[in-house]
Structure prediction request, 428 residues.
Amino acid sequence: MSVVGNVESTKLKAGLEPRRLRQLFSTRAGGAPPLIAGRGHEQGILAELLGELAQGQPNSLGAVLFGPRGNGKTVLLNAAASDAQSRHGIDVVRFTPTACPTEERLSTRLLEGFEAPQSLSHTVRGGGGVGVAKGQVSRTRTTNLPSPSVTSAMLERIKRTRKPLVIAVDEAHRLQPNVGEALLNAVQEANGQQNAAIALLAGTPDLIDHIGRMNATFFLHRLGDSLLPMGRIADDAALRAVAEPLRNANLKVTRQAEQAIIELCAGYPYFTQVLGRTITESPELSVGCPIPLGDPDDAAHLATRDRFLVRRKKHYRRVWSDLRVGKLISCGYMLGKVLHASSDGRMRVDQVERALESGLTHLYEQTSQPPDLDEAKQSLKRLGLLWDPEDTGASYELGIPSFFGFLTRQVGQLQPELAARLDAELPV
Prediction:
């Protein structure tokens, strides 16, 4: 799926056979949807970056796609990596943090498919710190390296392929800090030696802070427009994501169905795929007829809606479980209440911190080692439930706003006394 050209096009034959129709929408993590809608800006930035890289003159060290889970970061990352190879002939290395937990494993990954080098040129920069400082003197040494450094391995790969290089890392917030530091330092070093290379990183909102923990803030400073927050999409984009593929498959989407799609998806890309899959798996579906959704007086339509709500609730329960493991149920409850009182969906930093402090004071389940405020905040970012899309540090948004309505209802039903205590401490 290309990140350039007509970014909201689908190529589907009308009247798909039932089996293919059911496979039209993907609910797998990172599964390619039939239509990427509402991401024209991000796709344009990535397309421009790849074009510059193909010419050997990238104006950035890469791109960072960060945001809550289920918003299409992996989809865009995969699309960009595929586009780099197929459209531009760029060399691409993809990996996940679990596949490369050490610098040695990353070096090995960079040299996969090549004969092991007997020796590698290894450039060392004078002075301390991370990155290439202006005016530093470099020296080069050649040694027999049974395990070459990440920088040496990257330079060797570029030398052998004679192509620009893209390193694509999904779930980058899970990178070991020393591995991330070595990777981003190597990208900067390669460009400093006139070897075109970029890193494309995708991860939860915690990724920005995590890059700082890698001692690699220089990478963020060199991103410019390539720091790409990915949150919910506009209602019209969510509608296109579901309705256009269905119409291209010779299914009718009524005005009532359009309103139901907008309401149920709530701008969350993952829910567009869940709803699309629910519709195409409906036994009441008939090619050439209206989809069974939107008519409140039709039993088939209500059945489709109910099946979607069951799947959505299953997703919510997984998120609930993550919060429970992190001892953050009460914190989530307080954030949900603050969100409900917000007029624009944003919350001031002081509101968030007071909400978390109250949640940590009145825990859903008692524990001898509750998280502290900073741990709670980082955990919520890592789970993609709390984030600052503008990366200003002035305010926050919730990653899946509709989930917090579910959470507050659950706590109110399961522990009404706790809910009452928490309500009494709502920040204003």
